[in-house]
Specification:
Layout: H1 4-18, H2 23-30, H3 36-68, H4 72-91, H5 102-110, H6 115-124, H7 127-140, H8 144-166, H9 168-205
C-alpha cells in the first residue's frame, strides 16, 4: 500500500530542492558559448552525473553517517537548517551559497565542458539535494515501498530538470524572466515549510525530548 503522505513529502522535497525551472537561466549562462549540439550533450551529462551522485549518497549515506557517529536527529536538524537557508535565498531571489556562487559560475563558463562543474555539482546535486536524499532514505527505515517512492521522486525531478535544461532557450522566451522568478518564489515557500518540518522532526526525535 502506498504511503501517500510520504510520497507527497518526497516529491515536493525533490522538486523544490532541485528547482527545475530555476535551472533554465543557469544552464543558459554556463553553456552560452557552446554550439547547440554540444549544449545538449552537456545537459545530458550533467543530469546523469547528478543522478549518479544522488544514487551513491542514497546507498551509502547512512553507512557514512554511522561511521562518523552522526545521529539521524542531528542530521535532520542540520539538513532542515540548510534547506531553510536555500528557501530564504529562493524567496528573496538571492544567489544561494549552497549552490553555485558567482565566481563558480564564471569559472564554469571558462571550462570546456561545465557538465560536472558547476551544472551537476553544485547546481543540481548540491549540498541541499544530498541532504534531502539522505533524510528521505533515512525516513524510509528500509521500507522497500518508501525507498521506491524516494527513487521515483528524484527520477521525476531529474527528468523535468533535463527537459527544462534541454529546452531552456525556448522556455525562457515563453515564460520570461519574471515567470521564472514567480515559480522560484512559490517553490521557496514550499521548501521553507518542509525545512521547518524537518527541524521540528529532528528536535522531537532528539534525546532532549526523550530523557528518562
Amino acid at each position: 500500500m502506498i504511503d501517500w503522505r510520504f510520497a507527497a513529502t518526497a516529491f515536493a522535497t525533490a522538486f523544490t530542492i532541485i528547482d527545475p525551472v530555476g535551472m533554465i537561466p543557469l544552464s543558459i549562462t554556463v553553456t552560452a558559448s557552446a554550439p547547440a549540439q554540444a549544449r545538449r550533450a552537456i545537459v545530458d551529462r550533467a543530469v546523469l552525473i547528478a543522478a549518479g551522485i544522488m544514487l551513491f549518497m542514497g546507498l551509502l549515506g547512512h553507512a557514512i553517517l554511522t561511521y562518523l557517529g552522526i545521529t539521524l536527529p542531528a542530521f535532520t536538524i542540520a539538513g532542515g537548517i540548510l534547506l531553510l537557508l536555500i528557501a530564504i535565498d529562493m524567496l528573496f531571489a538571492r544567489q544561494s551559497g549552497t549552490k553555485a556562487t558567482t565566481e563558480e559560475e564564471r569559472a564554469g563558463q571558462m571550462l570546456e565542458n561545465p557538465a560536472v562543474f558547476p551544472l551537476a555539482v553544485p547546481m543540481i546535486a548540491g549540498p541541499g539535494t544530498i541532504a534531502t536524499v539522505l533524510l528521505l532514505v533515512s525516513f524510509s527505515h528500509g521500507n522497500g515501498a518508501r525507498l521506491a517512492i524516494v527513487a521515483a521522486a528524484y527520477i521525476a525531478a531529474l527528468a523535468v530538470t533535463w527537459l527544462c535544461m534541454r529546452g531552456s532557450t525556448l522556455l525562457l522566451r515563453l515564460v520570461g524572466t519574471t515567470g521564472i522568478h514567480v515559480v522560484t518564489r512559490l517553490l521557496g515557500i514550499i521548501l521553507a515549510a518542509l525545512a521547518v518540518q524537518f527541524i521540528l522532526n529532528g528536535l522531537v526525535a532528539s534525546p532532549l525530548f526523550h530523557r528518562a
